[in-house]
Write a structure and sequence with these properties.
Layout: H1 2-26, H2 30-55, E1 57-66, E2 76-86, E3 89-99, E4 105-116, E5 121-131, E6 137-147, E7 150-159, E8 164-165, E9 172-176, E10 178-188, E11 191-204, E12 221-232, E13 235-244, E14 249-260, H3 265-268, H4 274-278, E15 296-300, E16 305-307, E17 311-315, E18 319-323, E19 325-327, E20 332-338, H5 340-344, E21 348-352, E22 355-359, E23 370-379, E24 388-395
Parallel strand pairs: 17-24
Antiparallel strand pairs: 1-2, 1-14, 2-3, 3-4, 4-5, 5-6, 6-7, 7-10, 8-9, 9-15, 10-11, 11-12, 12-13, 13-14, 16-19, 18-22, 20-23, 21-22, 23-24
Helix pairs in contact: 1-2
Length: 402
């Protein structure tokens, strides 16, 4: 039967072409008619080529979000591109640009694969996130599961670089925070326009800005509850409320435009097609459900410093004064000396604060009478200074050295 249908289409195409050619030959201006026919054929082939090119892609999403202060923080643009698409598997890449609650822009680049069974899908993905302003990098690994009217996902996030000077928090360093989240999204089969979401997220470390740079917490976690309404496949309205510890909370209203490449626009603006979007087949090219905004961790920069004179020299057994210069805005808690070689030679160091005394060891004829000495200090906030070094030089006792 397929062969007959194919043959019928071929015969119809041949008949149409013959008819058009006859019109050209019988036209008063055969040359102009031939040009028009060529242009029409080229345009038709061009449209087919463009449509075929678009069909290889997946979908695009533009989401505009309003926070509690009616600012457009949290808005985003995403696109999913099909790399290899078969009935049982989809290999894809995903590209996105997102702004967070502090106005930071994050670029997301992901690669994933989805395996389709009869009525369910299992998938996995790998992402690289890049904070454009702060130049931070974060890796992400996720898994997902889908079936009709249900979607589950789990994601982990891992910081890929160290501390950097914060451009927005004076006196602080910052880096991407590491953490994870678990997400669920479901729709009512009898009312596919209405959906709900639930998410739990946890990040690790001190001074993490899960709710922004001005609301830092230790090992913060939060639960997000949301509802969304999709009157037509192209448009979705949503509201999310995130509740954290210590009274932290945030509410976002958003409108998302979801465009499917290769699908006629008319089909995307008909409310009767929303139910199809909730099916497993209709959600084949949906974006990966993850937190594309980079959560940052902060570290207060310490003004703690310590210095020692470069060299101290004295005779065997002599007691020398050693001036230590330590500064700290939080106050010095204690001093930590590395004097192992000095004490092994029966020398010693005693004192407190800025004033210390060193008893020099005996001079060793023909030996190495140099003893390195280093010091770090800790402030009352637990910060540690960089190490300061000096060298102790012991000379042989002689009457003319006195």
């Amino acid at each position: 039967m397929d062969r007959k249908r194919t043959a019928s289409r071929g015969e119809q195409t041949t008949t149409t072409a013959a008819s058009r050619l006859a019109n050209v030959l019988t036209s008063n201006d055969a040359t102009q008619s031939a040009e028009d026919l060529a242009r029409g054929a080229a345009a038709s082939k061009g449209n087919e080529a463009v449509q075929e090119w678009l069909n290889q892609f997946g979908s695009a999403r533009v989401q505009l979000a309003l926070d509690d202060e009616l600012a457009l923080n949290g808005s985003q643009v995403d696109a999913l591109f099909a790399i290899e698409d078969t009935p049982t598997a989809l290999t894809f890449s995903q590209l996105g640009l997102h702004s967070d609650t502090d106005g930071e822009l994050t670029l997301n680049l992901g690669l994933g694969k989805r395996h389709f069974l009869e009525n369910q899908m299992f998938g996995y993905n790998l992402f690289l996130d890049r904070d454009i302003q702060g130049q931070h990098s974060r890796g992400g690994l996720g898994t997902e599961y889908m079936r009709d009217n249900l979607r589950l996902s789990m994601n982990t996030y891992l910081s890929l670089d160290g501390w950097m000077n914060s451009k927005k928090q004076t006196g602080y360093n910052e880096k991407a925070a590491s953490g994870f989240d678990v997400r669920a999204e479901a729709y009512i089969p009898t009312l596919p326009q209405l959906g709900g979401k639930l998410a739990y997220e946890q990040y690790f470390g001190d001074d993490v800005g899960l709710f922004g740079k001005d609301k830092l917490q230790t090992n913060p976690h939060a639960i997000t509850v949301g509802v969304n309404y999709t009157p037509i496949p192209l448009v979705t309205f949503g509201v999310d409320h995130k509740q954290g510890t210590q009274g932290m909370q945030d509410t976002h209203f958003d409108i998302a435009f979801n465009y499917s490449f290769g699908t006629p626009l008319l089909k995307q603006i008909q409310s009767s097609n929303v139910a199809e979007k909730r099916s497993l087949a209709g959600s084949r090219y949906d974006m990966v459900d993850r937190n594309n905004e980079m959560v940052l961790q902060y570290q207060e920069q310490s003004s703690l410093s310590v210095s020692l004179p470069p060299v101290l020299q004295g005779n065997s057994g002599q007691i020398l004064s050693l001036q230590v210069k330590a500064t700290s805005k939080n106050g010095v808690s204690y001093y930590e000396w590395d004097d192992s070689l000095l004490t092994a030679a029966n020398g010693k160091i005693i004192g407190n604060g800025d004033s210390w005394q060193i008893t020099l060891p005996a001079y060793v004829p023909g030996g190495d009478n140099r003893y390195p000495l280093s010091l770090v200090v800790y402030d009352k906030a637990g910060n540690k200074s960089r190490s300061a070094q000096t060298q102790i030089l012991v000379t042989e006792y002689r009457a003319d050295n006195v």
